[in-house]
Amino acid sequence: MNSTLTKYKANLLVVDDNPDNLRVLSAILSQEGYKVRKAISAKSALNTIKLERPDLILLDIKMPDIDGYRVCSILKESQETRDIPVIFLSALDKTDNMVKGFEVGGVDYITKPFQLEDVLVRIKHHLTIVKQSQELFEHNQLLIKEIQQRKQIESKLKLLLTTINLVSKAPNLNHAFADVLSEVCQMIGCDYGEGWIFNENDQGFKLGQTYYDASDQVLKLFHNLSLDYSFSYGVKLIGKVWENKQPEWIEDISQLDEDQFSRVKLIQNTGLKTVFAVPIFIEEKVIAIMCFFLRSAISYNPEMLELVNAVALELSGFIERKQTEEALKQANKELLRLANLDGLTEIANRRCFDESIEQEWWRMKRDKLPLTLLLGDIDYFKLYNDYYGHQAGDECLRRVAKAMTESCHRPADLVARYGGEEFAILLPNTDLEGAIYITKKIQTAIERIAIPHQCSYISTQITLSIGIASMIPTNETLPEAIIAAADQALYRAKSQGRNTYCIYNNDE
Fold first, then answer.
1. How is residue 91 annotated by DSSP?
2. Phi, psi of 149 (to 5 degrees)
3. Residues near 415 by Cβ (< 8 Å), separated by ≥ 6?
4. Distance, CA of 336 to CA of 344 (rounded, Å)
């Protein structure tokens, strides 16, 4: 129905070549509250319909220029007029006339002379059908729109859930970027996707990850050439997104010059038209930018941007979580290092030694391999401290610890401050021959650093006494056994004049 005719029941067109019939019927319908227009010929009727579409047509069949059947056929052939109900009013009362009227698209057929009440009832009936059809059409359109919206929401949720799943499993940003670019490109039908990552050294954005059909040699070339590009703050598309921290949409790249898009010449042979870029930032700092290219020119699409923005937010959260996890990991690592470090000498402390010997003991027992322990003691260190002072004593301990550490090169070897001026060297999978080799290296290193010791009874410089114990752990022994053995060997080295080493002998 025409919404502008709120004071009328409906907009009717009466077509009849008899002026008297036309006038009488029009007057009656007007009195009934209808807006009535009149046409005295088929041509004038068709012109009138073009100017304003009626809600219903009352059409005579016998007319001089074009008969009513043909008029009705013309109306049904047009998309704009095919739904207008046509009621034939005719003096032709034979059955075949009526059948033909329905065949050409009429909804009803009234023979002349007609009863007014009959005409009014039929008009009302068909207008009701039109109204109901219109309401049904509008309802269906709403349903279609709702279904489309739900599908869009489902697609968005699916993409976001997939993105969350991919991102949560990604070991780093590059993997997350690659997975997300692939998923987004496939979801929104992009031909080429790329991720630009901020480079601290260049202070600009460099190409990090891309997604495209690897068999497409044109896009492959475009990707390879793009690797040489870097974008500064505020410059070109990437720099502009970086500066504004807002998405950018370009409908047709070919219409730009190099001042606006630096890769215009590269893009010419790719067929790529539309590009849009979305920033990824943390705490107002843009750290990455996603770009998506399509080979068809697409006008600005806020729904698509909203979807990709949601993905960008998920990536932002991932990066933030990874940064927090890494910071926490480093903090824990540093705490663990400090907890196991001797503050003065910066080698392993007694706590670290106790844990390590326990672990290595059980490991060597499992593998049936020898574990060797060296216990070293600086000779006459109390006299050194008394003569040179505690600051010099601390420096002496640091230099001795460094010389011992430099003498042990395997990752599993551990040099620890055992207590005071005592040091422990734990050597997994090392027999006595290897232990003696390391011991001599340590004594040579101590001799080389030549720390003066005027109060020593055996030398003019710092020396070291070392006790050596080596054994293959068994179920009948504990780590304390090797410690006691090395301590006993150290005692013998001291009793034999110091500045020497002794090996524990189980037969003693």
1. S
2. -65, -40
3. 347, 348, 401, 404, 405, 408, 423, 424, 425
4. 17
Q: Set out the domains of the chain in order of their start, with CATH numbers.
A: 11-136 (3.40.50.2300), 170-326 (3.30.450.40), 350-503 (3.30.70.270)
Strand partners, 289: 196, 279
Please confirm, yes or no, whether 421 is among the known catalytic residues: yes
Q: Please tell me the distance from the alpha carbon of residue 66 to that of residue 474, in angstroms, as a whole number.
A: 117
Locate 271 and state its tokens.
């067929």
Q: Are the C-beta atoms of 228 and 260 separated by less than 8 Å?
A: no
Q: What is the pLDDT of residues 33-69, one digit of tens each?
A: 999 999 999 999 999 999 999 999 999 999 888 999 9
Tokens describing residue 367: 């593998």
Question: Parallel, antiparallel, or unpaired: how do β-strands 204-212 and 230-231 relate?
Answer: antiparallel
Residue 53 burial by Cβ neighbours in a 10 Å radius (0-12, 13-18, 19+): middle
Tell me which residue has tokens 């059948």.
99
Count of helices and strands (H, E) across the chain: 15, 16
Per-residue pLDDT tens over the stretch 72-92: 999 999 988 999 999 998 888
User: Residue for token digits 């290897």?
Assistant: 434
Q: Which of 320, 326, 421, 447 is catalytic?
A: 421
**What do you get for the CA distance between the two ends of the chain, in Å?**
117
Beta strands in 40-114 (DSSP E): 56-60, 86-90, 108-111
Least confident of 15-19, 32-36, 321-325, 438-442: 321-325
